[in-house]
Specification:
single chain, 5 helices, mainly alpha
């Protein structure tokens, strides 16, 4: 099985730059409604590159998610989204991105790798 660039998941191409925070908030609210609070961490990992490259405020994304869906929950989700973005940053700076994209192979079940 090959891992396909886990840290390079592209942002949906039709996001308009002048409304990107609102659209990210809407996407986040929809993901959380569909996949519970774990979706917030995954969202941070998935969109971490875009959020950091464009210096987008995590609090502003959470605020827009709450505007889109008042049942989204608490504003403390900014901490949870920060965790997901933090995992993205750690993976990128710690060389995991190279591991995923260069090797991209998961060891076959039942086979042991030689360590000599």
């Amino acid at each position: 099985m090959k891992i396909n660039h886990i840290l390079e998941i592209p942002l949906i191409e039709n996001l308009e730059s002048n409304n990107v925070v609102s659209e990210l908030g809407e996407l986040l609210a929809k993901e959380k409604a569909k996949n519970s609070s774990y979706a917030i961490h995954y969202f941070g990992l998935r969109y971490g590159k875009f959020i950091t490259d464009n210096n987008i405020s995590i609090k502003s994304i959470i605020a827009k998610a709450l505007e889109y869906d008042p049942s989204f929950g608490s504003t403390h989700y900014d901490v949870e989204l920060s965790k997901g973005v933090g995992v993205y940053k750690l993976a990128k700076t710690d060389g995991y991105e190279k591991e995923f994209t260069d090797k991209g192979n998961i060891p076959q079940q039942g086979k042991q790798s030689e360590q000599k």
